[in-house]
Amino acid sequence: MDRKGIVLGSKLAVFSMILLWHRHGVDQPRNPWSDGPEFITQCPIRPGGNFTYQVILFEEEGTLWWHAHSDFDRATVHGAIVIHPKHGTTFPFNKPDKEIPIILGEWWNDDVEHVLDEAKRTGGDQGNTYLLRVINTGLTNDMFFAIAGHCLTVVSIDARYTKPLTVDYIMIAPGHYIMIAPGQTMDVLLEANFTLGSNSRYYMATRAFITLPVDTIPFNNSTVTAIPTARPPGPPEFPLLLLAIKDEDAAMAFVTQLRSLGNQDHPVHVPTQVDERMLIDIDVNFLPCDTTNATNKSCKGPQGNRFAASLNNVSFESPAIDVLDAYYYGSGRGPVNAFVNPTGDNGGGPLLTKHGTKVKVVEYGTVVEVVFQDLSSKNHPMHLHGFAFYVVGRGSGTFDERRDPATYNLVNPPFQNTVSVPKSSWAAIRFRADNPGVWFMHCHFDRHVVWGMDTVFIVKDGKTPQAQMLPRPPNMPEC
Ligand SMILES: [Cu+2]
């Protein structure tokens, strides 16, 4: 096993902020201590404090990113992690002439209004192939991305290689676009070999994909552009197609085309026997406003309620101490005696929900299948810490446990750490719970995180030392 350690100092904690770091998509074998989410695996780093995270890369190659995992801090506190092939190996595609990170972010005016406002300018030459490492750091939206006059070939998602998926420029839909969920990364090959019109300047453009009625949340749906080639002057060409902001069919068409690379160097190991099946309803709903609580007086939801979000009709409530410490100390490494409440109680999407700190405890090595069922009017990028998972199935409408498993792809499904669940659809994921620890699972829209669209997997220690959590570092921040 070839492991590489990176140490990120949390020097930014000297700012008057509470910051946490989380290396998105890094599996962190046996090491929940450096995973990052506040009150899940650690207490927040206080202003002036510091904590050194040990990032353990496992088999990732490609692009990941790190970001703060405290409130909305990750809107601006984030960056790319580029993982090249190991020494002596190479990309499973022709070596690109240049690699260019493209970080799609959001510009916020206040809590709910935002303007998409970032795409990086780069320069390029005709005939070269570029590897664009595209990251969606946004808090609230999936995005479409396209480059005028050019095909895009997706070769990796969440630092796992995919079968090259070329989106043909003469296609209208699906074509000329990729869709990235917040939290997701994609590596995309761009061959600068297409001449359109009389000049060689092309816009790359991105636009949000949002399925809510646009007037529900005031928001500027501008298309953001940058010019990737900087050769002769003249008006650049705009992409022939940039998808409509609510184009659900295009979103579904794109995500269903993704496949794992599945070659000798990068094999696919989809677990075929499932030990534990979970159906998790995803919903956006309300909690009653607690008028006795002074901090809660400004409940601005309908009928004096406040917005909430839930998994299986439970809106996650952050505990006062972090779940990992509660598990580590409260359990004596044996059965958990704090926060023991497996998720369950499928609610069917009532208007009002309940809140609680519910976690799911599984034995080491359990094969878990989760079917996410969207009951809300929005798509949700569901993200699991500690694991990558195979996205084995998808479908519109309501999941049918008798019929739909027959449609699963168990041969070469994509291997991801964030799965976009489009509005009114379901997505099935599988993973083997062979990483002992405490692992957050949540929607990657940050508004939904703070509204409670979260839960926690606790994977118990296995029998051998290699199947047990690493010891608790001595300098963990205190709550
Ligand atoms: Cu969500």
UniProtKB/TrEMBL annotation:
Its cofactor is Cu cation. InterPro entries: Cu-oxidase-like_N, Cu-oxidase_2nd, Cu-oxidase_C, Cu-oxidase_fam, Cu_oxidase_CS, Cu_oxidase_Cu_BS, Cupredoxin, CuRO_3_LCC. Keywords: Copper, Metal-binding, Oxidoreductase, Repeat, Secreted, Signal. GO terms for cellular component: extracellular region. It is found in: Secreted. Gene3D superfamilies: Cupredoxins - blue copper proteins. Residues 1-28 form the signal peptide. Residues 21-86, 125-227, 352-462 form the Plastocyanin-like domain. GO terms for molecular function: copper ion binding; oxidoreductase activity. Lignin degradation and detoxification of lignin-derived products. Belongs to the multicopper oxidase family. This is Laccase. It comes from Oryza nivara. The lineage of its organism: Eukaryota, Viridiplantae, Streptophyta, Embryophyta, Tracheophyta.
